[in-house]
Amino acid sequence: MNNPPQNPHDEAMSREDLIASLTEDLTPVKRTRPAEGIALIAFATIIALVASIAVYEWWDGLLTGEASGYFIITHGLLLVLGAASTAALVSGAMPRVGARANAPLWSAIMLAILPAGAIISLLSGNGNHAHEGLNDPVAYMCTIASLSAGALVLVAAVLWLRRGAPVSIERSAWLAGLTAGSLGTLAYGITCPLDTFSHVGIWHVAPVAIGAVFARIVVPPLIRW
């Protein structure tokens, strides 16, 4: 036995009732804009820079020409990595169709050349020179200070990711760590008066790797939705 045809009016009303039930508890939210995420991370970086200068004092080597080329190149690459990671992080918090940016990956590879070159340079020299470079007495202070500055940037990155809806949680965590590690090291690094290749090539890059691994472990539970 065939069912009687449904009244089109009743079908329309059922559809409207269904839509109303789905939207009844919804509340409007403020639209997230990429510029806001970039501004948030930039502000956190500035705060980290000011705090580093207040604690460790300003080194005017960049202004007087005293800073070595290694120092300038290292911190220039940190800035490039920080900018690329920030842009990818902010974009990743707002899902959309399209290719993912590979700039953070290539920037990280470029930066990784520095510690590789510094270690090769140390090992190819005499034993005492290598021992001194790999056991730099200021190294741990630089690493801890850079990670402390990066923690402020990481908080800003997590706050932004929580406002958005990142689909690739793991990728967003890596990007948050790269952003925090590079910008945090940059904020502290320009206050450090040690500008040898072995020092900046190893100990001003190590916090980036440490920050990336730390964020990959800690950040996903904080931004999962």
SSE topology sketch:
Blueprint (H helix, E strand, L loop, with lengths): L7 H16 L10 H23 L4 H4 L4 H24 L10 H22 L2 H8 L4 H25 L5 H21 L7 H7 L2 H18 L2
Kindly describe this structure.
There is one protein chain. By secondary structure, the protein is mainly alpha-helical. The protein has 10 helices and no strands. Helix 5 crosses helix 6 (127-134), helix 7 packs across helix 8 (169-189) and helix 8 (169-189) packs across helix 10 (206-223). The longest helix has 25 residues, at 139-163.
What structural class results from the helix and strand content? Answer: mainly alpha
| Anisotropy-based shape | elongated
Show unreliable segments.
126-132
Percent in strands: under 5%
Average pLDDT for all residues: 84
- Output the helix-strand order: HHHHHHHHHH
Helix content: over 70%
Distance between the termini: 48 Å
Global Rg: 24 Å
Largest sheet: none
DSSP helical segment count: 10
Chain oligomer state: single chain
How many DSSP E strands?
0
Task: Write a brief caption for the model.
The longest helix is centred in the C-terminal third of the chain and has 25 residues, at 139-163. Helix content is 75%, strand content 0%. It has 10 helices and no strands.
